[in-house]
Amino acid sequence: MKNIFLSILLLCYFFQSTSLKAQQLYFPERHHWENKPPSDFDIDSETLNEAIDFAQKNEYSGSKDLRIAILKGFAHEPYHKIMGPTKKRGAPSGIILKNGYIIAQWGDVARVDMTFSVTKSYLSTMAGLAIDQQLIKSVDDTVTQYVWDHTFDGAHNQKISWRHLLTQSSDWSGQLWDGYDWADRPPKTGSIDDWKSRKLHTPGTIFEYNDVRVNVLAYSLLNVWRKPLPELLKDQIMDPIQASNTWRWYGYENSWVTIDGHKLQSVSGGGHSGGGLFINTLDHARFGLLFMNNGMWKNKQLISKQWIYNATQSSEANSNYGFMWWLNRKGNRHWKGLPEHIFYAAGFGGNFIVIDQQQKLVIVTRWLEPNQIDEFITKVYQAF
Description:
This protein is an alpha+beta fold. It is built from eleven helices and 14 strands.
């Protein structure tokens, strides 16, 4: 009887320790990432495989020659041209992490591809580091306090704060790297004269997705840091999370400036005109895991928990948008039936990093038809 009781105790201990181990957060080493079967987390493998099959069958319908896809996608914009590098894309790929472990992957996850506006979430992180390190005192400071050249001249532009740039609600007016603010995603009606003479909105009140203004943020941060943002990203984020050395962050052929006697390139916040972040799926997953764990990698806080909280709060101008992260809140971009605490990075062509801190879940998907993302994520959650 005593032996039976002891065996039961040992069995209970085994299952408890196995369960606790599954719940602990795992951080991969460079060149090695541990896999676990979905069943270790009570996730239905068959249902999860159905979601992956859906992602692979619903490939982005645009050209694999992204130069063609970009020019076609933004053909409505006057004077639009490609000024930065481009690269032909691969087939759909993706990774799903649970508690840091890979529970599913598909496609070539080591292939480096353009990632378009997912770059914006990396750019936002550069602002977060500047806040954490007190290079910028407050996101509510006007940018002209830090960038004193002609970029923020004029009564309207002088009112623009870092918060306004981060939430894409600045309505900055001007020209940067041969790009006019009014020519980026103009209204479907009206003429060039109408767009040029539009009424300016009070900063912070109206959300307008605009890559020229995002590039103004990148240029402003370059002036604050006084060193290339890719170097900053590498030193303070990507190397500590042991990402690969294959990623690159580009600007345009004409986005070079001189700071402290050095010629530096101001990077772009997307691939709208080429450039932006070129990166593989595995490295995206590491970045997502860092944010899933509130900025801490293993025992080191790389970016503050407070910044991540602030970056994932609804902005005044758009309930679905924070500091260059999309939020699954009630609004035009709400994924019905899915948790409202989800936040995600999104880019042209169906590039996504989806994060659920409560479920300890990270989902990266590349080249999924963009209008299928909510159905794909719903299918993933049906496996839980």
